[in-house]
Specification:
Length: about 260
Amino acid sequence: MIGRPGRVVELSLDERTGSRLESKDRYLFGRFDLDIRLVAGESAGTITSFYICTGGARHDEVDFEFLGNVSGEPYLLHTNIFSDGKGEREQQFVLWFDPTADFHTYSILWNQLNIMYPVHRRHADQGVQEQRGERGAVPDPAAGARFREHLERGGVGDAGGRVKTNWSEAPFVAAYRRFDASSACVWRGNGATTRCGGDHLRSSASSWMGQTLDWWSWMTLNWVRMNYMAYDYCEDRKRYPHGFPTECIIPIGRI
């Protein structure tokens, strides 16, 4: 439905209800692209998200979340990866552009080597990728993951709850379009043939199945980390006083 040319779907949130979309297919690996225009104005306490998730208490999940804020303050891009029901692999970035003024493309690339979060500005020749495959667990290929989009309340406002959600501004509306999973593997169940789209052959130079960070992407990622990173679980000594998780010792961009 979202993938049809020119089709825009809006999800809304008020004090009583949120909204969600979910893919009919389950996926094994793939690249998933989606255009999003985030909630404009007063958006404190709202979470606009899209993610892939296997479901269940011991689920695997790859998260892309946008944490709203008061008017004039920047959005936070929040990422997390769950494996066997456990997450706690959060990173946050301050967005360096206005994600409410127009649609921008956000992606999840999940292959056998790593997980990346490409961010593409709609009117600039710039792509930023955050590579997390080697710094967190990759979801279990034995269980297909559905693609979901949410607009929900976060329980608190922005700034750790110091600013509460202003429900007089409701409904809060986020817009989605151009969902593209053509470069992905549709999972048909254990023992069934998995159908993959796009160039997925590892022997090909353009294969998404074999894609990792190239030199330019690695440099861009480090530029974003130096200038716009707000939180990294791998640097939180209060949270991990006795040592960081094992994946944190692996340098960014190396497998």
